[in-house]
Structure formats: structure tokens, C-alpha cells
Recover the amino acids of this structure.
């Protein structure tokens, strides 16, 4: 039976005391090998040719300590069977359809875009350390050389203990394919960001390529309603806390499985006002090792502005960017890339939904009262100069855009840059006013998890446009999380 093993590895020229610790042990195995690694810009699975056999290991899990669990899934010689072809090319991130057979390494490289075959010579010295296999390896390619220490075992606790014994726990865990790509200058670095809002948790994994460009690996949101009951009690309630912590833990595991080198997480309005925010932050830290920074409304505005200005072709004239959330809305005013003013107001879709019962069909009188209250609470926008460009972001505007385009499957490229005029927003407000949450879930383009808060969100968007005396707003699909990604990892 094949048993997955937990692995930890680091690369470098010297390892100091760790080498002395290994040198004090008796080597169990010393071996030289010639191997060929197949590397892909789209994947980090281990695919190599050794002793005439193509060997594939898949990454099964990444735990909160950053250890990776790898499972051997194939060891087969050429020509490869149709089943083996599927295993190999899937591991390398090559989309189907696949050829019926592959007869050489060159055939594998030709089957996928940007695949590279790298001959590697290894000098490996293997030890047993604290119940783990530990290996010091000299690695040489045709153009570069490095060294690596690896520790592996079936029990992750043993691996962590051995790494600590070697004094290497502060070093990052880097798989062999990723380390090899870095050595050869072929690497792209992956980072993850989390935006923990009052209504939803937004999750993004981006890949930063050597040319400075970014590509999306994962981008999604999960409605967890962290702020449910927050207005009445002033505290995060147990059930919203548990489901939000669970969602964050799942996202953190996915990020690590996708090869993210670091995770940045921020909390917004709900965590700013909750009396028990510290309890929530501690629960997340304990469950998955993610540190959430609760940022100010002004910082939230700055990051949203950065996301908008870096992703849309905007002029150099006066610009206003707003980001509506469940508990608050952020506003940033500037010219081009230069921020002149930013602030946050406690106007959010979740709060007004609870206050006026907007998760259900309501009368025209109730809607008018809600709009009047939103208008009053957005008084800070009164008497401002009319901006040349108005950009909206957040779940409300992106869902309004998706409904406008009738997107059965959300398409960020269609939503990005959509212009929402007051006529379209008023049409949707009336659609939501006359239907309950269950009926709204049948509306093409509306995310089911947004059905209860979309009416309040649409009212906020409409009011912002009216306050700034515009007749439309441009939608940015790139939100706070994208600004956070650029700000923390863009260098």
C-alpha cells in the first residue's frame, strides 16, 4: 500500500549547525543519480524521469505548519499508457484532450505549453533523524548548482520536531520543483490574500511572474454572514464565528496546496466594531495559523483605490472610488494614482437589510424609508465636486453587473468595466423590492448568497451615484483583496 508522506525541504548553499548535526550521524545511504525533471509554469507537482521510469508525486495536503503531504501516483516506463498520459499531463497542468500515448520525454514537453525538461545530477546522503528520513543533497544542472536538506515521515509531528532539532524552522518549506524553478529563473511566486468582511470572505491566490505580471490562480468569495446579529448585540455570535473560521481555514489550506508562499489577511468593518474581535482572531490563528490584521476604514479605502487604478484605464482628472460592504462603505478621492482623501462610513448592506427587513419583498413606503436613511447616513458626500470618473467595487456592484449581463456563470472579464446607469439600477431595485430572497435566487446572474442583501446593496449604490451627481458608475471587479495583493506582494 502506498502511504503519503509529509515532507519539508529547504534550499541554500550552507546550512550551518544543521550540517554539523547531520555530520554527527552515520549515513545510511550515499547515492549519485541522474534525473530529468519536467517543469511547468502552471503546476508544481513532482514529475521526473529516473532509472528509465517516469515518476509522479501529487501534492495531497498542506497543513497549518506549511508541511506538504506528497503521494506517489505513478511509476511507469515509456511508452506511457493512455491512463499514465492523463496522470502525467494533469500533474503538469496541461488541459485535455491528451494524446493516446507518449514515447519520450520530448513527447511530454511537446504536449504542453511552456513545459521544460531539466537534467539534474544529485549527490544524496541519507540519514535517520528523530524517526524521520533526512537527506542532504547536492544538486547540479547544466547551468547552476545548489544544495538542499529534506526531512520526511508519515507523521507530520515528527517532521516538525526534526526540523526544529536541525534549527531550520525559520526557513520556508519549498518543494523540489519550485526550488528548481527558482534556481533556473523559471519561477513564478504565488501569494494568497483574504478579505474578511461583515457579510463574506473573499479569497484570492495570485501568481507573480518574473516579468512583473500577475495572473489569477483562484478568486472566489464565500458568504458567511459574520455580522449576523452584530448590530443588536455588539458581538460576533457563535454560529457566524464558527462558519467564518471554518471558511477561512478551508481557504488557507487551499492556498497552501496551491503553493502560496505567504498569506495576507485583513478584517474590515465587522471586526472593527465587534466587542469580541480578539476572540475571533484567536480562533482563526489557532485553527489555521493565519494572522488577520483589522484595518482602518481609511486603509481599506486606500487599498480599494489601488485596486481600481491599477486595473482600469482611468483618466488623470478627479476620480472617486467607492467600495460597499456588509457593514460599511469606503470612499477614496484622488487624481490618477494620487490619493487626496479617503474615509469610511458605517453604511453597509447587512446593516440596512436587518434594519428595514430588505431580505424580503417590501412596500414602496419601506423602500422609500430605507433610501431616506441611507441618504442621511451618506451626508459626508454632500456638496462635493462632481468627479470625472466614478468607480464602484464590492459584492453589490459586481452582482448588479452580473444581473445586467444575465451571467449564468460569473465572468470577471465581462463584469470588469461594466457601466451601471441609474435606469438599470432602478430596474433591479424594483425587481428585488417585489420579491423575497427565495425568488431572488432564481434571478440569472445573482449569486444565491447575495439574495438577502442585494436590495440594500443596490440602494446604497444608487444613493452614492446620486449624491455625487453622476448618472452612472463603472464597475471594478478588482476589490480590496487585489489591492492588498499588490500592496503586500507587488515588489
Amino acid at each position: 500500500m502506498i502511504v503519503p508522506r509529509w515532507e519539508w525541504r529547504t534550499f541554500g548553499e550552507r546550512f550551518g549547525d544543521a550540517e554539523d548535526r547531520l555530520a554527527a550521524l552515520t549515513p545510511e545511504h550515499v547515492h549519485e543519480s541522474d534525473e530529468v525533471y519536467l517543469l511547468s509554469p502552471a503546476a508544481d507537482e513532482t514529475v521526473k524521469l529516473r532509472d528509465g521510469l517516469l515518476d509522479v508525486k501529487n501534492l495531497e495536503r498542506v497543513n497549518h505548519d506549511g508541511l506538504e503531504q506528497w503521494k506517489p501516483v505513478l511509476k511507469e516506463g515509456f511508452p506511457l499508457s493512455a491512463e499514465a498520459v492523463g496522470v502525467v499531463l494533469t500533474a503538469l497542468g496541461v488541459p485535455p484532450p491528451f494524446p493516446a500515448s507518449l514515447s519520450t520525454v520530448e513527447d511530454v514537453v511537446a504536449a504542453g505549453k511552456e513545459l521544460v525538461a531539466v537534467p539534474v545530477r544529485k549527490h544524496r546522503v541519507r540519514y535517520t533523524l528523530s524517526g524521520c528520513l533526512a537527506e542532504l543533497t547536492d544538486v547540479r544542472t547544466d547551468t547552476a548548482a545548489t544544495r538542499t536538506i529534506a526531512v520526511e515521515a508519515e507523521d507530520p509531528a515528527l517532521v516538525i520536531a526534526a526540523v526544529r532539532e536541525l534549527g531550520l524552522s525559520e526557513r520556508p518549506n519549498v518543494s523540489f520543483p519550485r526550488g528548481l524553478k527558482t534556481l533556473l529563473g523559471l519561477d513564478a511566486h504565488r501569494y494568497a490574500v483574504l478579505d474578511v468582511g461583515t457579510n463574506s470572505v473573499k479569497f484570492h491566490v495570485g501568481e507573480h511572474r518574473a516579468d512583473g505580471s500577475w495572473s489569477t490562480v483562484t478568486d472566489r468569495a464565500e458568504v458567511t454572514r459574520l455580522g449576523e446579529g452584530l448590530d443588536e448585540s455588539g458581538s460576533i455570535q457563535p454560529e457566524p464565528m464558527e462558519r467564518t473560521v471554518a471558511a477561512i481555514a478551508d481557504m488557507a489550506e487551499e492556498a497552501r496546496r496551491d503553493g502560496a508562499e505567504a498569506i495576507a489577511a485583513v478584517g474590515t468593518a465587522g471586526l472593527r466594531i465587534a466587542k469580541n474581535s480578539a476572540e475571533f482572531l484567536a480562533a482563526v490563528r489557532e485553527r489555521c495559523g493565519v494572522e488577520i490584521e483589522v484595518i482602518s476604514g481609511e486603509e481599506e479605502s486606500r487599498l480599494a483605490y489601488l485596486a481600481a487604478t491599477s486595473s482600469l484605464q482611468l483618466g488623470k482628472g478627479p476620480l472617486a472610488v467607492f467600495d460597499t460592504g456588509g457593514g460599511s462603505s469606503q470612499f477614496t478621492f484622488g487624481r490618477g494614482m494620487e490619493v487626496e482623501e479617503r474615509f469610511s462610513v458605517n453604511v453597509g448592506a447587512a446593516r440596512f437589510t436587518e434594519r428595514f427587513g430588505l431580505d424580503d419583498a417590501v412596500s414602496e413606503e419601506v423602500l422609500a424609508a430605507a433610501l431616506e436613511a441611507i441618504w442621511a447616513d451618506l451626508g459626508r458626500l454632500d456638496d462635493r465636486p462632481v468627479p470625472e470618473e466614478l468607480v464602484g467595487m464590492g459584492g453589490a456592484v459586481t452582482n448588479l453587473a452580473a444581473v445586467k449581463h444575465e451571467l449564468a456563470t460569473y465572468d470577471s472579464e465581462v463584469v470588469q468595466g461594466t457601466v451601471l446607469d441609474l435606469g438599470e439600477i432602478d430596474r433591479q431595485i424594483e425587481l428585488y423590492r417585489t420579491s423575497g430572497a427565495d425568488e431572488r435566487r432564481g434571478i440569472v446572474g445573482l449569486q444565491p448568497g447575495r439574495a438577502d442583501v442585494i436590495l440594500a446593496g443596490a440602494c446604497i449604490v444608487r444613493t452614492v451615484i446620486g449624491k455625487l451627481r453622476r448618472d452612472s458608475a463603472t464597475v471594478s471587479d478588482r476589490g480590496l483583496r487585489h489591492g492588498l495583493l499588490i500592496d503586500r506582494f507587488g515588489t
Summary: The radius of gyration is 26 Å. Residues 34 and 121 are 5 Å apart (CA to CA). The domain at 189-295 is CATH 3.30.420.40 (Nucleotidyltransferase; domain 5). The chain has a mean pLDDT of 92.
